[in-house]
Amino acid sequence: MSHTAHIRSHRKPRRSTPKISVRAGVAGGVLSTLAVAGAAGAANAAEPVTQTVELPTLTADLATQVAQSADATQQAAANYELQAERDAAAAKAAKQAKSDLADAKKKAEATKKAEAARRAAAERAASRSAERATLSASASASTGTSTSTSTATGSAAAVIAFVKAQIGDAYVSGGTGPNSWDCSGLVQAAFKQVGVSLPRVSQDQSTAGTQVSLSNLQPGDILYWGGAGSAYHVGVYVGDGMFVGAQNPSTGVVEKPLSYDPPTGAVRVL
């Protein structure tokens, strides 16, 4: 027996064909699986395009809802603002109405007071007129003056018309017109209208004509206050118990009854 009989051969054993076929089949199966997986992966890669088609629709709806909400909010704000303006206008109108009512009440009260004052003044004027009539009658009885109602004619009428035209003019010491007078300046100017030249001062005018009784006065006579030749004031008798004269700085030229300031005497130059 050879000494190498128990040593195993170093040659590789031959593989059988079936094993190679199995391996080839397994490899083919793996490749098939990979191919299927690749196809599936390609198909899956295309699917996201289909899934995102609806996103714009969802986004548009959301934008519409947001816009509608903003419009609603804006409209609500506008409504609140309008209501606030109406409330402010109503409050202003109420305040103005209250003020107008208060003004109307004040005006009505003022009108009422003015009317009461006017009536009181009218009553006082009527009372004074009655009192003056009584005083005039008393003065005529006590002094013997006449309240002739005869109408002046000719030169006397012209003198009376002139002095009455100056009623309301101012009294100024030394004044001779045309808008301010003293007592003798007015009398001198009045008689100058009919061609009668009188002295300038009251003292001389009180003796310029014929002395007449106060119980026999005629329109156009010159009245004087004080003594004849020493008179301090003069005026013109205009009839009906009235005279016109430039009295003083407070009254100016006025027409008054004889009872207002009974004269001392009179002279007649016409």
Describe this structure in words.
- With 270 residues, this protein is α+β, with helices and mostly antiparallel strands.
- Among the domains are: 85-143; 154-268, endopeptidase fold (from Nostoc punctiforme).
- The chain is built from five helices and eight strands; from the N terminus they run H-H-H-E-E-H-H-E-E-E-E-E-E.
- It has helices at 17-51, 55-143, 154-165, 183-192, 202-205; strands spanning 170-171, 180-181, 210-212, 222-225, 233-239, 242-248, 252-257, 265-268.
- Helix 3 (154-165) crosses helix 4.
- The protein is rod-shaped.
In short:
The protein is of the alpha+beta class and 270 residues long. The chain is 56% helix and 13% strand. Residues 16-22, 33-37, 39-46 and 132-149 have low confidence and may be disordered.
Terminal-residue CA separation: 215 Å
Taken from the alpha-carbon principal axes, the silhouette is rod-shaped
Structural class: alpha+beta
What Rg, in angstroms, do the CA atoms define?
Answer: 67 Å
CATH architecture grouping of the domain at 154-268 = Alpha-Beta Complex
**How would you characterize the largest beta sheet?**
6 strands, antiparallel
| Strand coverage percent | 5-15%
